[in-house]
Batch of 4 targets.
Target 1
Amino acid sequence: MFKKEDGSLFREQVMGTKGFSGTQSILYHHFMPTETEEVSLSGSYLPEYEEMAALKHRHLLTENIKHGGNALQAREYLLGNDDLLIAYANISENMQDYYRNSDGDEMYYIHYGNGMFETMFGTISYGPGDYIVIPIGTIFRIIPEKDTKALIVESFSQITTPKRYRNEYGQLLEHSPFCERDIRGPEKLETHTERGPHKVVTKTRGHLHEHILAHHPLDVEGWDGYLYPWAFNISDFEPITGRVHQPPPVHQTFEGHNFVVCSFVPRLYDYHPESIPAPYYHSNVNSDELLYYVEGNFMSRKGIKEGSITLHPGGIPHGPHPGKTEASIGKKETLELAVMIDTFKPLKVVKKARKYEDENYMYSWLEK
């Protein structure tokens, strides 16, 4: 415990994962973090999924999601399983209350917009192309300065950098497509010492709960440790290329339990003189593949727009649309930007997502 100037004590809080055997930080509060005036149950937040139907490739158009609001109100769940939920949000308003996900980590990919994540660890500013990772149990709110479009992953496990790019001490290796220099932590710690009721919406056990604290939730005077929110911009991902086609794992950026997140960025195509840049047809037999298309010319696809989401489920092959393989021959580079999420359990489609679907996508490989 540290003492304040008046001789009273700061309240020490240890936030630790995996029973305090994982990553952890120590925070020093002006008030007891347990000081709560009222609790209530709001209800379940888990989405309702489709019943089992014929296996097919899917295409969702997020441009058809029109409603906005704050980062909780605007969240539209589209897909998920027992390991993660995937949502899209048009964030147009400030969060008036604070929020914490105690079911797992959250990751935001910012497609458009600028603003701030105000967290108990400090403030992180965001802009287009930023991945923001918020650890489980972190109290925060999102303040958009410009209307923000974001792809959101709610993970029921910790989101980390790929294990194969780290040495035994946890440092990112030299051949990793990014390094610690590219990672941004909180920029400024703003400490609030106001008394009075403040609401924190807590997500846990599949439900939303409201906790009314007797003080401001961002009352942290200082902290240290290894568990904290951080940001990484997709433009700092250095692509791995080769003379022949490189498989999707070279694009991996993050991982959680039973899923990975990859970044497709502008890069040189294969430079063997006889190479065909378009990817081969492939069957991701043990995983489902989701792609969120950000910008550029999506070399192997037709009918895809910015903000499109495609789902290619395991069990059936997918690959370039008709004519795209031939059109890629002789091309030197791609300027596409996309985020890919591969899951090792099947992704289920949320019932509401049907409103945003291109029903003809499964048949777009038919040669006319």
Note: Helices lie at 324-328.
Target 2
Amino acid sequence: MSLERFIRDAISPWMKREGPESDIVLSSRVRLARNLQQYVFPIAADKESAHQVIEAISSCINEKNKVSEQQNLEMLMMEELKPLEKRVLVEKHLISPNLAETAKYGAVLMNDDESVSIMINEEDHIRIQCLAPGLQLEEVLQKANEMDNIIEEHADYAFDETRGYLTSCPTNVGTGLRASVMMHLPALVLTKKISRIIPAINQLGLAVRGIYGEGTEAQGNIFQISNQMTLGKSEEDIIEDLAGVVMQVIQQERAARQQLKDGLKLQLEDKLYRSLGTLENSRIIQSKEAAKCLSDVRLGIDLEILEGISKTILNELMILTQPGFLQQYAGEVLNPEERDIRRASLIRERIKLENR
């Protein structure tokens, strides 16, 4: 398969679009956790019970074809997927690592452009996830609520009048809402201001994590900021508070970028061009170095220092150079060194497409 075709087929269609504040905010995500009242939580479910949950949710979704007509949802059963296929879904943020690794009898429903995925039998019976490019928290919340309302018409949710939606983990009780934004913050890292900003964000009741959420590091200067509180606040308040903090971080990042451009322009240009040269010429490159160089190149594009390269290159290559995608593109299982060689080759090919 040619790289052009592989990129077209591998990258989620929603990722190819730009959204508000997309020079800094790569994506917005909302996830709603729900459970069916008559079934035990997935962690305590056996095969028969788990399959009953899948059938019950499928029945809700297919009732009058309300969801399938609007979204053309397709179901994938985890037990029918190969480990590499599940890894690719994780790298595309369509399923969680938990669903891929531990939810043996789980499933996922996805729409055509992969902006909606409904995980079944993960930590909770239902996890509705909606994604969009740029800063679009209100829009993805609206889409998630629409999906939630359609399912709830035919499902009996576990709900308490005082506590709200009941979930497997107490931290999700209440609204069951997790909202997050993925942000590219290279200037705050370069100016070392990020070390002050992260504790300040944490004090506001928000969490700052890496690209794949809890327990992951921020590769390529990409940080995920999300709410921690789900109880005692409305969905709208959670979204408003998160968006307000994100806008402040955007302003700080833009100010830091201008500071670098005004005060250290030659040094900055040297750094960005060196990173581009590394990507254009490396024969072996590890994931951390690739992520760092890709971050520099994207910064150079946003500051109009590097020209003739698409803004989508960071979004694409941060996904395509992950282990699962590298092996999918190669058509075989690769050891770490082989992946580093393949990663360098794929990046060179991608940049050649830009030059073409």
Note: The mean pLDDT is 89.
Target 3
Amino acid sequence: MIHYRSILQSALRRSPIHTRFLWRPVVRSVSTAAQPNASREPSRWTRRLVYTGIFGTLGIGAGKWLDNKISSPLDPGSLEDQMEIREIQRVFDIGLPIVQELRRNPDYVEKNVYENFADKHKTHRLTSGPLAGSRGLGLQKVFWNDKEKKIISVVFLGPGLEGWPTMVHGGALATVIDENLGRVAIRHFPSRTGVTANLELNYRAPVYSDNFYTLHTTLDQERSTDTKAYAKCEVRDMAGQLCVEATGLFVVPKTLKLNMVGEYF
């Protein structure tokens, strides 16, 4: 049997016309392919270097953040803890707009907390003992407005207060809120002392550790008496978002003798 296809292909290979058409596409494909590759190669390597830098930086940053989160909190009083406390204080002094605003307002007086306790007594208190240091309540400052019977407290909540990773424990928040409600209540009582009778909290948004927050605490002057004080508190982040709402009732015990807290916070 004659293979007509083989004969036809053999004839075409010998044909000058076929040779011309075969040659031209090859030349065109080589010339058109070589020029774009030459122009694209530098930009391709540039993009690769840029992507490498971006993702490398992100990876290093994420690694440091994760290492900070899973490492043990600093021991209170250690050299590292003291350095961290100084950094927290520096950010408080120069990095928080609300602090600058309150310091310019003559109606607010800035105070430290626990001024009525000696250092040896502070270690026996939850918030100034076990929760002290940069891992806990790294900073607490009180701005008191006597005209409005209002306190704005600025606090730093460290990683040792976490419940879930990166989130402050609700019980730790309740402790800080309870103390701030008690501050306005005790300043209202003529006896300058009192205890918590009722505390109610509503958690509105997550509160994250290693951050500053403000507690806006106000006395309900219309409902409060010499032995009962009603107060409310709002916890807000540095952007002003409401995180926690709380109300409290404080009383002066009739049968229990308590030490006078005094004019301090």
Note: Strands lie at 108-112, 137-145, 150-157, 195-203, 211-219, 228-236, 242-251.
Target 4
Amino acid sequence: MISNVKNFGLFLIFISTFILFHACKQKPRQRDTKKIAVVISTLNNPWFMVLAESAVKEAESLGHEAKIFDSQNSTALEADHFENAIVSGYDAILFNPTDSDGSISNIQQAKIAGIPVFCMDREVNAKGVATSQILSDSYSGCVAIGKHFVKSLDKKGRYVEIIGMVGDNNTWNRSSGFHSVVDNYPDLIMVAQQSGEFDRNKSMEVMESILQAQPDIDAVFCGNDPMAMGAYQALVAAGLEDKVKVFGFDGASEVITSIQDGKIQATGMQFPELMAKTAAAFADQYFRGEREFPEKTPVSVELVTEENVRFYIEN
């Protein structure tokens, strides 16, 4: 009797194992790990490096694969990256656009292919194309910079504005926010406005050229921190670094240190890690079946000056 019970038990184990084996063979487990493309406008900027690397780190922490693609500020190269992501079977794209209008068609191609696109930091001029856009509140951030600018110059003086890339909405949001304040003071006179293309070397060249025509200036407002550092280099070369006040935007570590050292007046602290983490989290939620996302998610910008810079120094 005992022998029969043992034999029956072994038979049940054999049958259960047989059924489980064939069930797994007939119905393979669905792959949980997804592939995420992180397409960045340019890696020739430390701030965007932080954005890209934070997106990858967060995606990987959520159990997914992620790869960075550098568009080098070219919509054509950006289009190649999107085509590659579509053909290679990527499941989502975390995207920092090169151009507010020129990047729309690339997102549309991904949407047609069923691939969600989550924009980071830079927006595109189209609704319902990107799955969601996570953006710095550049306008409000530059309103705060404008107020500090007015106070620092005691409401009067001649200044230069170096804007970013003409096709980027951030360029005009920042400029508009700044001018919404500064233009109310008639004794603050803008003597030149040129594009530094968000690039340090380009900004230095632009500043050098402007100084030849307008050597008597009191301040420079730059649309990002690399341009602020480029402008500052040009002022140092001209021996004007102690006379001309420089204002930036981004919150780059080099500029934070420069504010502490009294070289740069102020910047707007953005939070690329937060934007990247939010985009990666949204992609993960999409993989889990979520389809309702906010059209835009604004991320606040904080004014950093010599009065509060100690709170932003990395230890």
Note: The chain is about 45% helix and 20% strand.
